[in-house]
Design brief:
Length: 652
């Protein structure tokens, strides 16, 4: 996940706003309740119903520090960690949010996250985006656009492509809470800012997520429509940064009907051995499998050059990847060597419902930003066995997903990332892995953006990052968030880990913000080498990346630790909620405390509800505050106290 777009106001949220405000319809003339005669209004498209276009009203403002911000625009891979895309819009006729509603999520970035790969989602950060992502400073997201640091992915870092960032001015759209529905049947042509082709643009080209400036004549009829760009730059090389998200300010337009092209294209069922495929062309795959059932053994595929004209097309649809399977193809690959040194040059890409890639005993190496190892979007399926995957770019998760998500199953293998905002996994999909080694050196190790999941069995997970901060300024090994970039559906995330190990070198082991999630851990060897980090932090965020509104974007987590040993504290802020259950022979050695929300948000009930089952133990290392406590096990107070919400103080 993919830097999430700067202007990202999730379509679902916008639709809710439209319904809630009950704004009336304007049909070529002024409506009874809203008279726009002689006025110009600005809004983000939330619904297109034939000739009726509903917009969320507001205004365009210059983004704070837009001239120098290079770090956190990730939704994709990076920070969260895998920010997703690196947007090079030099060939894009429209430099504005694509407004594509999210399917399965591309964060972060991803990244996602947001700053990570993410998900996209993923947008590169300084290092790798994410949910849930051309390269930024690093990588990062649905995922990922590179930013300074990290998704998810999701996917939501931002970040700029190489060049003079001071020459780049980014804008964001701010809603005012009202909506309007406009009848555009009388309008023939529109104006699209930054449009470089010579053809007339029509109303049919307007997409959900576009920012429109609509001018009315004195009779109240629509006289002109302009699709606004949210980026001004003297450089065409703008791309998402590394937060796991695609950068809205720089993301190019994308379409569900993007046409892929391959240096070699296979459309017929076939069995192929020991062939070599390569590409140096722009928007070109080294090998494209289109709708066919194909077996590939002992092949090499190299994407050694060529640019991606749209980071979103690269992150969402696999344009510019080394190997792309699409249109319901079924591809079986073994003993392959796949390499890529091109922006948006993902290794193996599975796109679309009905498309399945089965790959085993192969190696995948990518070098540039927004270039994941195995990538799945649009409802595709990837099954990976005993792979060696290594990525170096920002927002380049080893196991990456983006908008539309899908299903990914990993068995065995080694997955390593070295770019900023490049988690080992950036999820805007349903991802399971067993017996795999997952390592990220400049990013969160794992990022989940939105209503998606990661389930691990007997995997060894390590985040070795020690110096490079994530896009939101927080270190963490596992990040669970919602970037609201549109790359991942809103809903409950799921993270589970059974057996294996989880090692964190900097910051918190697990971090949750702006989403609801379930967390299950059983028999995991957990190590946090940072004495200032906590085991679990569930809090709101400052809202600067679009991850909800500061003061009301806390996290909610149902946490079950079964036969699990944990040494570390748990922190929950007043706008967040946690239900913690210790089961089996679990032991928690540490404190649990409720802290004031940093942005002064209104407190919610049941911040920290703790249940200790028979056979489990909580050993205190300091004074604690929780909402309520049900104890059927053992509490070792060590001279400390537990204060409940009703003022009761427990001690022994």
């Amino acid at each position: 996940m993919k830097n999430k777009r700067l202007a990202a106001l999730a379509t679902a949220m916008a639709m809710v706003t439209a319904v809630a405000s009950g704004c009336s319809k304007t049909s070529g003339s002024t409506s009874e309740s809203d008279d726009y005669s002689g006025q110009t209004i600005t809004g983000e498209v939330t619904v297109i119903d034939g000739d009726d276009i509903t917009i969320a009203l507001g205004e365009i403002k210059e983004a704070e520090d837009s001239s120098s911000e290079s770090e956190d625009d990730n939704s994709g891979e990076s920070e969260p960690t895998e920010a997703t895309d690196t947007s090079d819009n030099s060939n894009d006729s429209r430099s504005m949010p694509s407004g594509q509603s999210q399917g399965d999520g591309e964060a972060p970035s991803g990244q996602a996250p947001g700053d990570g790969e993410m998900p996209s989602g993923q947008a590169p950060g300084d290092g790798e985006m994410p949910s849930g992502q051309a390269p930024g400073d690093g990588e990062m997201p649905s995922g990922q656009a590179p930013g300074d640091g990290e998704m998810p992915s999701g996917q939501a870092p931002g970040g700029n492509m190489p060049g003079d960032s001071s020459a780049i001015v980014q804008y964001e759209f701010e809603e005012n809470g009202d909506t309007a529905t406009i009848d555009v049947s009388s309008v023939t042509t529109i104006t699209v800012e930054n449009d470089t082709d010579d053809e007339d643009d029509t109303v049919d080209e307007i997409q959900v997520g576009d920012i429109l400036e609509i001018t009315f004549d004195e009779e109240g009829s629509v006289s002109s429509i302009t699709v606004k760009s949210l980026t001004e730059s003297s450089s065409a090389d703008m791309m998402p940064n590394g937060d796991f998200t695609a950068n809205a300010a720089s993301g190019g337009s994308s379409s569900a009907s993007v046409d892929a092209k391959g240096a070699t294209t296979i459309t017929e069922d076939s069995d192929i051995e020991s062939e070599s495929y390569s590409s140096t062309g722009d928007d070109e795959n080294a090998l494209l499998i289109d709708g066919a059932t194909v077996s590939l053994s002992g092949i090499t595929a190299d994407k050694s050059g060529g640019e991606s004209s749209s980071s979103e097309n690269g992150d969402f649809y696999g344009i510019n990847a080394a190997v792309l399977a699409t249109n319901g193809a079924t591809v079986t690959i073994d003993d392959a060597t796949v390499t890529s040194d091109a922006a948006n040059g993902n290794g193996i890409f599975s796109y679309g419902d009905g498309t399945t890639v089965n790959i085993s005993d192969s190696s995948i190496t990518t070098v540039s930003d927004n270039s994941g190892g195995i990538m799945t979007t649009g409802g595709g399926t990837t099954n990976a066995t005993n792979l060696t995957v290594d990525t170096s770019g920002n927002s380049s998760a080893a196991i990456r997903s983006d908008r539309g998500g899908g299903t990914v199953k990993v068995s065995g293998g080694t997955y390593s990332t070295h770019g900023t905002g490049s988690p080992a996994i950036y999820s805007t999909a349903d991802i399971t892995a067993d017996s795999a080694t997952l390592t990220a050196t400049k990013s969160e190790a794992l990022v989940i953006e939105g209503c998606n999941s990661i389930a691990l069995t007997d995997c060894n997970v390590t985040s070795t990052e020690t110096e490079t901060a994530s896009s939101d300024g927080n270190f963490k090994s596992v990040m669970i968030y919602q970037s609201q970039s549109g790359d991942a559906d809103t809903g409950e995330s799921s993270f589970s880990m059974t057996g294996g190990s989880l090692t964190c070198n900097s910051g918190d082991t697990i971090y949750v913000t702006n989403t609801a999630c379930s967390i299950y851990m059983n028999g995991v060897d957990i190590t946090n080498n940072d004495t200032d980090g906590v085991f679990l932090r569930i809090i709101g965020n400052g809202g600067t990346k679009g991850w909800g509104t500061a003061g009301s974007n806390g996290g909610t987590a149902d946490v079950v630790l079964e036969d699990q040993q944990v040494e570390g504290d748990i922190a929950v802020d007043t706008i967040s909620q946690m239900n913690l259950t210790l089961k089996g022979a679990s032991t928690l050695t540490g404190t649990i405390n409720i802290a004031d929300n940093a942005d002064g948000g209104t407190a919610v009930d049941d911040n920290a509800v703790v249940t200790i089952d028979k056979g489990s133990t909580w050993e205190l290392t300091g004074n604690c505050t929780v909402t309520s406590l049900t104890n059927n096990g053992t509490i070792i107070f060590n001279g400390y106290t537990i204060t409940l919400a009703d003022g009761t103080v427990l001690s022994k």
